[in-house]
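Look over this one:
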Amino acid sequence: MNRGLLWIATFLFFLFPSSSLAAGAPSTSLRVYFVDVEGGQATLFVTPAGQSLLVDTGWPGFNGRDANRIVAAAKDAGLSKIDYVLITHFHMDHVGGVPQLADRIPIGTFIDHGENRETTDQPTLQVWQAYQKLFQSGKYKHIVAQSGDRLPIKGMDAVVVSGDGNLISKPLPGTGGENPACKGAEQSPADTTENLRSLGFLATFGKLRILDLGDLTKDKEWDLMCPINKLGKVDIYIVSHHGWQQSGSAQLVDGIAPRVAIMDNGAKKGGSPGPWEVIEKSPRLENLWQLHYSEEGGSTHNVPAEFIANPQGPDAGHYLLLTAHPDGSFEVFNSRTKQVKKYSSEQHR
């Protein structure tokens, strides 16, 4: 390469540091964007096969802030459409952004757990009705997924482990051992909101396992993990319920024993000290990453700054990008610091 071309390549690298090129994502890799939607969820999976799965769409309103951030991540990934949008449940911070997103980028298929069951909460009803209105156009395919189903996305294997309050009845292949974290513990009271109906899944990509349970609550975590661990260990734990108290029990977190946890919290939503400590004390944890500095967590319950996408102060919408490789190795890119942390493969199963 001559000096002129080398200079141009170097210039483009630093001009577009958030791109998948800068994050080192070859075509054989799975990329997962953790989009900042201020304490909601919007997690974009892009497989080596070129297919995309967006888990949740953030909030409504805010002049389309969350939809714009999702579209920016999609463009960074080289996408002109989103193949699948999976809605974990029908709370405002998860399904609220659907209409604005649909106005900005083509969507192929929506996946959800079926009917809204929280019929007495007005904000939930409003976003549910807006979501249902989309289907009147006939433009979109719709899948109601049940526990045990496999998601149709090509390039990774994703099995549904929870949905509409129902859980897998048998341990996943290669799992099923007794969970020591259940001994002496008490089961939490039953939740009565849409949270317990969250559509959760475990994705396998090569040797890597990624768990996303949406906002699944502690009572349902118990049924998944006690006395038998039906999920086994995972490499990446997408922290349930933004790190709030209703989810993230020691029975779940110690049982799945993640190497890395990624928390989609907001500055004033999630990152509570109790669940934060459970993660930090889990047996195999190498790092916890946060989308925001948690004001509730304060000085003693936040990770070091290099593991936070958005520190204290005005929010800039920085994201985290996980790039996973078939051999089980992976790296996390912080779009604020422009730094990448690499994790080697681990033969633990």
Remarks:
- The longest strand covers residues 157-163.
- Residues 28-339 form a domain with the Metallo-beta-lactamase; Chain A fold (CATH 3.60.15.10).
